Amino acid sequence: MAFYNKKYTDDCRAWISKNQNLYENTIDNIKSFLELGGLLHIYGVAVDNMPDRSLFLKYEDYKKYVKPYHKFIHSVTGVRTLLSRANPSFSILSSEEDIVYFCLSWLIQGDFYETLIYQIITCYDYPNNKNRQRGLKVLKNRFINESIHLGIKTIDDWDEYDKDMKEIKERTVLSEDFVAPQTLGQEGEPLIAPATDDDKKEGEPPKVPVTDDDKKEGDPLIAPATDDDKKEGEPLIVPATDDDKKEGEPPIVPATDDDKKEGEPLIVPATDDEKEGKKIEP
Question: Which residues constitute the domain of residue 63?
Fold first, then answer.
């Protein structure tokens, strides 16, 4: 199908051919910031320059969704302001005719209706108002039917658009639940994120600092050991006290007379009374 008015179609194609870069760059940039109100503003200027306005929605049908651009509706000057933000070339160099042809070309030859429908859908929940939601859904259906009736889009075009939108939505949902690869690692590949011993394969050395709780039976101690860790028969690993020594071993720590056995010489400096064997009275 094609737009019902061949002359307008041919005129728009000729203008696009002459202003290819201006047209494409402006559309690419304007999509990044233009919301529903601005799109309806462009729509109004395009419709005002159509030969049969009765085939299009009237301003009264969509005016409540136009804010904050209501004061510029159907104003070429207002559209120039929007287009200049997307492409400075529109600020001075472009004539009023260029502004009008841009609006007509995007509407008739481009993806204006798809962009418009996308913005309507994104507005469903903003603000969260059921009456506004119902109004936006009616508006969406009317624009879709209008584009088909005018020969700008076909039912197949909208079926394909609906399919694409569902795929985008599914990808968005998946991306929200997606765990970054660096935390998962792929099968057969080493982990990219800091690993834990739960991640290591059997037989691999520990990837994180381990404690004695992690070691296998028979492995040497990895953490600083205490005498509780040593095996039977091994020497003391930490500074010992006499409580640790085996029977018959000499004292390991500096001893006092309280430590000596009966009959052993004094270990600490003795007094004369102790040397003569006298009992020291308290």
Answer: 6-176
Task: Identify whether 222 is part of a domain.
Answer: no
257 located within any domain: no
| Predicted TM-score (pTM) above 0.90 | no
C-alpha pair distances (Å), 71 with each of 14, 77, 150:
31, 11, 28
DSSP characters for the chain?
Answer: ---S-HHHHHHHHHHHHHTHHHHHHHHHHHTTT--HHHHHHHHHHHHHTSS-GGGS--HHHHGGG-TTSGGGTT-HHHHHHHHHHH-THHHHT--HHHHHHHHHHHHHHSSHHHHHHHHHHHTTTSS--HHHHHHHHHHHHHHHHHHHHTTSS-HHHHHHHHHHHHHHHHHHHHHHHPPPHHHH--TTS--SSPP-TTTSPTTPPPSS---TTTSPTTPPP-SPP-TTTSPTTPPPSS---TTTSPTTPPPSS---TTTSPTTPPPSSPPPHHHHTTPPPP-
What digits encode the pLDDT tens for the residues 157-169?
999 999 998 888 7
Q: What is the pLDDT of residues 58-81, one digit of tens each?
A: 998 998 888 766 667 778 888 998
Side-chain half-sphere CA neighbours of 259 within 13 A? 16
Confirm whether 236 is domain-assigned. Answer: no
Provide the domain count of the chain.
1
Q: Cβ distance 252 to 245 under 8 Å?
A: yes
Residue 19 lies in a domain: yes
| Distance of alpha carbon 181 from alpha carbon 265, whole angstroms | 74
Omega before residue 68 within 30° of 0, cis? yes
